[in-house]
Design brief:
The protein has helices at residues 2-21, 29-64, 80-94, 108-116, 130-136, 147-150, 181-188, 204-216, 218-221, 238-244, 246-256, 269-281, 295-303, 317-320, 363-378, 380-389, 408-418, 434-449, 454-472, and strands at residues 70-74, 98-102, 124-127, 158-161, 164-169, 173-180, 225-227, 307-313, 330-333, 345-350, 354-357, 422-425. By secondary structure, the chain is of the alpha/beta class.
Length: 474
């Protein structure tokens, strides 16, 4: 509007000047007075024009300076506290407002769909991999020419849509079966223990023998069960309908030499069944109680020494060390499911956390968001938070200088790699939809509770994959 006003005033000034130039050389006193009034008006108009132009210039400079705000829709509830602290610190240092909203566990996609439609939509959001990108690529700003992208170690850690860099992974994580070293050592010291050392567990057969014996002798060992509860509420079921489901997907992909498929065959579903059976029988609770058990329940059971084994990942370090467990108490085993050659298997390592910047945000908000991300991966405050407070291993070169996350769970992953074990890739990012996960999870719970058959899990896994893939790729 100010630019239009400038144009109108300039035109008015030019017209007035033109009319004066065309006046008669024989002017009366009245005409001279009128001319003086016109000149006075021109002076006023020119002054107004200069002021308006200055206002416009000031406005453009402010935009160029990157005035804007950041709205981050965070995927990881377990790191909400750290992101809130980072946002507050950045706002205090720069004056740029940063809002962090964390979606409840298992509701991110639904929350994103709701928030992205609002006037004040997220300027920064996440996708979980190629399947997630397919749904949100039309909202993704091309990060190819950004400072953030210049710090990424390899394109192995980015998502591309053609030549455009649509997403950048900000954390490389590892999961497996976390175990309490002290409790397992106590078990090994019992008469008749199946193993004498944790290193002997390198396949499903041995894992099951150990877990069965611990469950049978739980009172003698002073625990409530071999494994923590396999809770199937939304704060915990992702551990099994996604992370555990990755194992049968991974081995089928390995057999076929592929990284995705439109129709999973379910070759390793019997293996999926036997590890799930182990989780729900050698446990701190009866299978009938799983629908009410939460992620916090499982973490507390492990943290307080009620269970020896706990399927989870490196991100859980801070939660399980709040009640007295030390680094010396913690180790991590691969998730063994009885697949051929699993003795050479390492931990599950990858990422489903890719930052995407909303290209539909204002230019000022986009720049503010990019500036915030750059600060997170380059400042001492940001790097310390990601590496030490959140415990993340990142793919950025800026973390190589003294900001390498270190906790015993991350160290365990490194030890398996150093021993020549093959890390299990995160193939669940190729799962066709959240609906597929939910249906598999529901079937797992029904089976565990005794109200459903394993065949329903197989149907949800195989038939559901084909159906959901077709629906997503019409």
């Amino acid at each position: 509007m100010k630019k239009k006003l400038v144009s109108v005033l300039l035109c008015a000034s030019m017209i007035s000047t033109a009319l004066v130039g065309c006046g008669s050389s024989e002017t009366s006193t009245t005409e001279e007075a009128a001319t003086e009034e016109t000149v006075a008006e021109e002076t006023t108009e020119e002054t107004a024009t200069e002021e308006t132009t200055e206002e416009a210039a000031t406005e453009e400079t402010a935009a160029a300076d990157g005035e804007g705000s950041v709205y981050y829709l965070n995927f990881k509830p377990e790191q909400d506290e750290q992101w809130q602290a980072l946002a507050a610190t950045y706002t205090e240092e720069t004056g740029v407002p940063v809002t962090v909203i964390t979606a409840a566990s298992g509701t991110y996609e639904q929350t994103l769909k709701s928030e992205i439609a609002k006037t004040e939509a997220p300027t920064l959001f996440q996708v979980n991999g190629p399947v997630g990108l397919a749904s949100w690529k039309d909202y993704c700003y091309d990060l190819k020419d950004t400072e953030l992208y210049s710090y990424v170690k390899s394109d192995d850690f980015v998502l591309k849509d053609g030549d455009a860099v649509s997403g950048i992974a900000y954390v490389i994580e590892t999961y497996g079966i976390i175990y309490n070293k002290t409790l397992l050592a106590d078990y090994c010291a019992l008469d008749g223990a199946v193993i004498s050392d944790a290193s002997e567990i390198n396949n499903f057969e041995t894992l099951k023998a150990v877990a069965d014996d611990i469950q049978a002798r739980k009172d003698e060992l002073g625990v409530a069960g071999a494994f923590t509860s396999a809770g199937m509420d939304s704060s915990s079921d992702w551990r099994f309908k996604t992370h555990l489901a990755n194992l049968p997907i991974y081995y089928e992909y390995q057999d076929k030499g592929i990284g995705s498929t439109d129709a999973i065959e379910g070759t390793y579903l019997d293996n999926y069944k036997q590890i799930w059976d182990l989780y729900i029988t050698d446990s701190t609770c009866a299978p009938a109680l799983l629908s009410s058990k939460t992620g916090n329940d499982a973490a507390a059971e492990f943290a307080t020494g009620m269970a020896v084994f706990y399927q989870n990942g490196t991100w859980e370090y801070s939660n399980i060390t709040q009640d007295g467990l030390t680094d010396d108490d913690l180790g991590m085993l691969p998730i063994y499911i009885g697949a051929e050659g699993e003795e050479n298997q390492g931990l599950c390592t990858g990422s489903e956390n890719y930052w995407c910047v909303n290209k539909n945000a204002s230019e000022a908000d986009i720049q503010a968001t990019l500036d915030f991300l750059t600060w997170v991966v380059t400042s001492d405050t940001g790097r310390n938070s990601l590496a030490n407070d959140m415990g993340f291993v990142t793919p950025f070169t800026t973390f190589d200088d003294g900001y390498t996350a270190s906790n015993p769970l991350i160290n365990a992953a490194d030890e398996y790699i150093a021993a020549g074990k093959t890390a299990v890739s995160w193939n669940f990012s190729s799962i066709p939809s959240e609906t597929w996960k939910d249906n598999v999870g529901n079937a797992l719970l029904e089976y565990a509770q005794g109200t459903g058959e394993w065949s329903a899990v197989e149907t949800a896994f195989v038939d559901g994959w084909k159906t959901e893939y077709e629906a997503a790729n019409q």
